[in-house]
Amino acid sequence: QVQLVESGGGLVQAGGSLTLSCVPSDDIFELNGMDWYRQAPGKQREFVARMNVGGETNYAETGKGRFTISRDAAANTLYLHMNSLRPEDTAVYFCHANILAIDYWGQGTQVTVSS
Hints:
globular; mainly beta; four-stranded antiparallel sheet
């Protein structure tokens, strides 16, 4: 059972920046892509960004140009760097991995952007 632990959320003013971290319990970067999702109150969970095994990335339109997904294999950590944050970015952000057809989710970290 893989566990994913997020951290780095908080309260930030519009236009500010935050970096989220996700640490998996196992070294899975070489075998699996990983993603960030988010869920705002009253809304469905939505895709934010993905990094595949080869390091290729893709982003939801809402985050393009503002968010960057990265990883540090030595630190076994996945990151989401968020700049120019907007109030509509307020959500719980989740780290996700699909390993052998099983979805693993972290507990989430709250990001609140004030206007």
